[in-house]
């Protein structure tokens, strides 16, 4: 319990900081984008290479801020009974074009008898997007992602996302979910951190099985009902 408390304290502080910083950066970013556009339109010579770099770097800052904002204090978070199958299928449809561009096929296997679960659909979608994107990104030559959703026991369901990517060495698995841990040249190292936080808030857990050179499976276990925890009452 102590360990969990400590972790959730840290996450709260990180969340508040993230919200503050993100909002502070958003405004100057908007100004920057506007003026760069004006500049681009009024400069005659071809500086398109420079503008491309500026635009892509601005986009990068924006994606970091967007991921940070998910950490921020809940904006209109609405826990409700939801069909995870639908949330997952919406996400797969959303990423369809990106998957196809990378020669990646996404196969989904859903159990017939799936209970609805008490969750925040936009946040779960965020987790699925992060994990599916990671899976696509580790298969530069294409491959198959297998998604499965099944009941685990009376009170839990399990979602698994399996790729045929590079795999993760044993000693790196514990680094997953740490802020800024990335092995990608253009990575943010925030996707999994946000995902772990969201699943933790859903009283679920994430487990990883991986074999270097073979692939990786992320297992997400979610409760069907939300339990009131001891420290909910403490107001932590
Ligand atoms: P990013 O994708 O920006 O690097 P993430 O938090 O999404 O940040 O992921 C952190 C790191 O975890 C990745 O850089 C990668 O090293 C590792 N990782 C995540 N998903 C996978 C996967 N499916 N296969 C192999 N490595 C992964
Ligand atoms: Mg990622």
From TrEMBL:
According to its UniProt entry, the protein's GO biological process terms are:
regulation of DNA-templated transcription; sporulation resulting in formation of a cellular spore
UniProt key word Nucleotide-binding = yes
Which keywords label this protein?
ATP-binding, Coiled coil, Kinase, Nucleotide-binding, Phosphoprotein, Sporulation, Transferase, Two-component regulatory system
List the Gene Ontology MF annotations in alphabetical order.
Answer: ATP binding; phosphorelay sensor kinase activity
Record has Kinase as a keyword: yes
Residue ranges of domain Histidine kinase in the record: 20-226
What is the protein name given in its UniProt record? histidine kinase
Q: Which organism is it from?
A: Paranoxybacillus vitaminiphilus
Print the organism lineage: Bacteria, Bacillati, Bacillota, Bacilli, Bacillales
């Amino acid at each position: 319990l102590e360990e969990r408390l400590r972790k959730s304290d840290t996450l709260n502080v990180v969340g508040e900081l993230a919200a503050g910083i993100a909002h502070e950066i958003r405004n100057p970013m908007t100004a920057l984008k506007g003026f760069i556009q004006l500049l681009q339109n009024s400069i005659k010579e071809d500086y398109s290479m420079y503008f491309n770099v500026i635009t892509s770097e601005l986009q990068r800052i924006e994606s970091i801020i967007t991921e940070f904002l998910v950490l921020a204090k809940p904006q209109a978070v609405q826990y409700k009974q939801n069909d995870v199958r639908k949330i997952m299928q919406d996400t797969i449809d959303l990423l369809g074009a990106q998957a196809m561009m990378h020669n990646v096929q996404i196969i989904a296997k859903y159990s017939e008898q799936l209970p609805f679960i008490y969750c925040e659909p936009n946040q779960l979608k965020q987790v699925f997007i992060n994990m599916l994107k990671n899976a696509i990104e580790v298969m530069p030559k294409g491959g198959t992602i297998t998604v499965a959703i099944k009941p685990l026991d009376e009170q839990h369901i399990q979602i698994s996302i399996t790729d045929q990517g590079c795999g993760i060495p044993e000693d790196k698995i514990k680094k997953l979910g740490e802020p800024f841990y990335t092995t990608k040249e253009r990575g943010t190292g925030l996707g999994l951190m946000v995902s772990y936080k969201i699943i933790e808030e859903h009283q679920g857990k994430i487990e990883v099985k991986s074999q270097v050179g073979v692939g990786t499976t992320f297992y997400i276990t979610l409760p069907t009902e939300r339990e009131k925890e001891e420290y909910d009452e403490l107001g932590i």
